[in-house]
Amino acid sequence: MPVNLKDLSAHLGLSPTTVSRALSGYSDVSPATRERVRQAAQELGYQPNRAARQVALGRADAVGIVYSPATEFLGNPSFLQMLEGLARTLDEAGCDLLLAAAPTEDELPIYDRMVRGRRVDALVVAHTLREDPRIRYLQDSGFPFVAYGRTARADGFPWFDFDNEACSRLAVQALVAAGHRMIAYVHAPLHYNFAFQRHAGFLAAMRKARLPVDPACVLAGSLERRAGYAAARQLLAMPAAQRPTAVVVDNNIGGIGMIRALLDAGLRLGHDMSLVVNEGIPEDTLFGGIEVAAVTQPTAFESGRSIGRMVRALVERQPLDEPHQLRQPAYVPGNSVGPPAPR
Question: Has UniProt tagged this entry with the keyword Cell cycle (predicted)?
Fold first, then answer.
């Protein structure tokens, strides 16, 4: 006969609430008790009635993240690795990660349905904007969330982010060290906070190196591969004397398009043109032995685990040890960077 929560509680001499919270990994139950309950559940073959537990605890046992298929974010390996780390951490607490696709770039209707319908216990807001209506909505609603990124006003809510200005600084420093003086910059739309900060970091790094910034060599594009391809074609169409000898791309989606265009034009990366790509190029992208120099996150998987721990604490109504977590990027050399070609 199947063992239910009441049977397991009687066997352990604990209240059903304590047993339920122990099985859910709540930190207000001691590690020793959680382990004792877990072992007893395994020995007795207890399978929790998830629906009943959700009703009893008033929880959905799910965390949501909304994305728009209008962008290519799901084609970004770093984002997928972050999701893997996030999902793994939530699963350890018996919680699911729900991905909701917004039919347009306006994600607010999806947020509203998830919050009003209590479909999730918390949300992760990804790819934050300078002025982000999603965050304002969640703050006004009093709904738990963690932002994967900052906004123009990075206070009043928990977030996890990287030092985006440092990303561009590291890229410029590497190119200047290789001898480059004419450096182009290709960026995502500046309403994304990461793009705004990386753009500011590029301009600051160029000023510090006392190098001019040619407005014709600072190109905006969408978060699509074709945007990187179009930017490369635009740079290559410039007169040879004005053409940059190196390029920094602020995202790896556009970086893939940039590389494809340079190779299609017959250029040798690291010889005819040097290139640094933020977040790096996916390992399964076949570019004939090219090792693209990159500014990367130390590990996107661990970033996801950190976000997952923050979300779990919010769901469990525990204080956050670090409500604002800023990580530093690292420069990874590659053969896509070399000295400027003679002219």
Answer: no
